Amino acid sequence: MRVIIYTGKGGVGKTSMAAATACRIADSGKRVLIMSTDQAHSLGDSFDKKIGYEPTEITENLYAMEIDTVHEGEKSWGNMKDYMKQLLTSKGGGGIEAEELLVFPGLEEMFSMFKILEWYESCEYDTIVVDCAPTGETLSLLKYPERFSAMINKVLPMKKAGVKVVGPAVQKLTKIPMPGEGVFDDVEYLMDKMMRLQKLLLNKDVVSLRVVTTPEKIVINEAKRNFTCLYLYRYNVDAIIVNHIYPDTAMEGYFSKWIKMQEESLKEINESFSEVPKLYLELQPKELRTVEGLREVSQILFKDVDPDEVLFKKEIYKVDKEDSCLKIYLPFANKEELDLKQDRNEVVIGVKNEYRKFPVPTEFNEMNIAGAKFRDGYLNISFA
Predict the structure, then answer these.
(1) What percent of the chain has pLDDT over 90?
(2) What letter does residue 336 receive in the DSSP assignment?
(3) Whole-number Å distance between alpha carbons of 132 and 230
(4) What b/e readout covers 199-232, taking b as 16+ CB neighbours within 10 angstroms?
(5) N or C: which terminus of the chain carries fewer CB neighbours within 10 A?
(6) Residue 107 has pLDDT above 50, yes or no
(7) Buried-exposed string 317-327: b where 16+ CB fall within 10 A, e elsewhere
């Protein structure tokens, strides 16, 4: 079974590319589910068909759904949300303000991602294609499993035992409501799902992420940052989709100045993502709004490759025992924006405001970081 996730800056056409991919794989005879985790759903527009919150048949072998984030959120943490609302309103009035305070950035997107796990584990489809939220939202949800797991695993057992023993007395004294069993059940349920989801996303034989870009400087820079952060979290990007390439016949007259700009942008994409497969699509003469149109585009986009295959896989994490060196693949990372430190048996790496922890190899357990430098896209961290 395969899971193919499309992401990129808003407006680059990732929904159309995801839909074209789903059509191509379904036409090969495989059973495909394409789902949108973007709260601003446009999947139905691509197929020119109303799509619901449950799989809707588009054509033979192809089903589509647009996820209801509110429903998924209530299902995942209804008890916990009710308790937190109680806390916020225990000393005063309620109102819309309490509801607004309970909207955490990235959390709704993560609940949407749970649907990927749910359908993957159901084994009802051969391939799941995901039209993911724009870059920022995608990256925010990838942080949750790792950041929450350490905290919850340490704190939850103590809190659960403490509430049982002293909870009634504290509630009576402070008038602050104590969490019930349902709240702890929600937390454990969330954590279990997050860990299973992360395990799935890190399975490079099953999951591929594909970054959609256009040949414009601003969008390319966003794609580079996206690419770096995805590798920072050890996810496998197996292709770059370059969309909206203007054909030469269109670059005349008023648009003649764009010829050189586009050529430079395409050159930068080729050089920057030299190892990763790149798939190119010219700007189409009509909107991609029907299955027939998406099929035509998919034949152009995937004329030489099978979109259901893992198109590329790179080793992200290497240990060089001979030189006491840990090598982590971080393409496009800027040395000035890099933060590196050691916290006991973990290496903490920050690129801008994205942080990731890597375990210190057991061979270097008694050593400390002695230095670091970039070489061929890898951050080489020396221990002594």
Answers:
(1) 42
(2) G
(3) 14
(4) ebbeebebbbbbbbbbbbeebbebbbbbbbbbbb
(5) C
(6) yes
(7) eeeeeeebbbb
How many other CB atoms are found less than 10 A from the CB of residue 337?
13
How many DSSP H helices and E strands does the chain contain?
10, 15
Q: Are 379 and 333 in contact (CB under 8 A)?
A: yes
Closest Cα partner for 233 from 341, 117, 364, 144? 144
- Rounded Cα distance, 116 and 209, in Å: 13
Reported pTM: 0.81
**How many residues does this entry show for the chain?**
384
CA distance 381 to 364: 11
**DSSP E strands, 214-359:** 237-245, 278-282, 317-320, 325-329, 338-343, 346-351, 354-359
Give 172-209 pLDDT, tens digit per residue.
Answer: 444 444 555 556 666 777 778 888 888 999 999 999 99
At 353, which amino acid appears?
N
Give the Cβ contact number of residue 163 at 10 Å. 18
225-262 pLDDT tens trace: 888 888 888 889 999 999 999 888 777 777 788 888 99
Q: What does the angle CA 323 – CA 327 – CA 332 come to, to the nearest 5 degrees? A: 140
158 CB-contact burial (10 Å; exposed 0-12 / middle 13-18 / buried 19+): exposed
